[in-house]
Amino acid sequence: MIDRLRHILSGFLIALGAFAYISVGGPLGASLFAFGICSIVGLNIKLYTGVAGTDIKFKEKLLVLFYNIIGAAIGAGILMLSVNNESFFDTARNIVNTKLTTPFYISFFKAVACGVIVDISVHLSKVHKKFLPLLIGIPTFILCGFNHSIADAAYFVYAPFFKGQSIEFLVYYALCIIGNYIGCNFRRICKIDLLKV
Question: What is the pTM of this model?
Answer without folding.
Answer: 0.91
